[in-house]
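== Sequence entry ==
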Amino acid sequence: MGNSTQQNNDKSFRFYTRLHLRVLTGLRASDITGFLRLLKTVSGSSIYYHTHHFLQQHQYLSPEPPNDFAHWITNALNEEVLGEKIASIDTVQYPSIRALRDKIILTMEDYVEKNPRARLRFASPDRAFHFIESVSFILPTPYLARTLSDFVEILKKVTPNSIYFHMFEARLRLDMETNDFSFWLGTSLFEKELAKEITSLDPYTFTMEALRKKLVGLAEERIKSVKDR
């Protein structure tokens, strides 16, 4: 497996799942200056929560989850242009939460420098931004894949939470360069082309069920190509 969980000595892949607990930090902001100050110091799990919780909670619905930061800036501070800039940040381009945080901060600071009036915008007391953290509990499943065929059959029955963990959380929260599936396929099964195909996917454009179907399809195509030789 990848760096997110302990790798098995026999190169097999253990599927994991995760549970999340929302925790209030007690930190809140009513203007851009205060928001930026807190954005620089809150935990990575808070950044992760506010950029990913919709995707976690609504796994069967349409993709492109809203960004809490962009939503607040647009609707509470009435800074629509800045809100659009934050919403348009392509999350998949950033290999870690740290890199994503830096991009959000840089985008906001650049905007405020060019539009100093933005510092004068204040949200009403009932619309202050409250920072929340996401605490994860990682749990092993009974599923263990040793071959590509095993991998496909297990993919068909694990929960969306398991797919989410291996495709999103392992890469972003644990600073991996790729997702768990691609890492294992490339390094343990030496399926480098398949690993590359999965790495190149933009998982944010899929629902969890659509992503499952895509992963299964890619792996089944690979199995078929080997049999047809």
Summary: The beta strands are 13-29, 129-145. The mean pLDDT is 87. The radius of gyration is 20 Å.
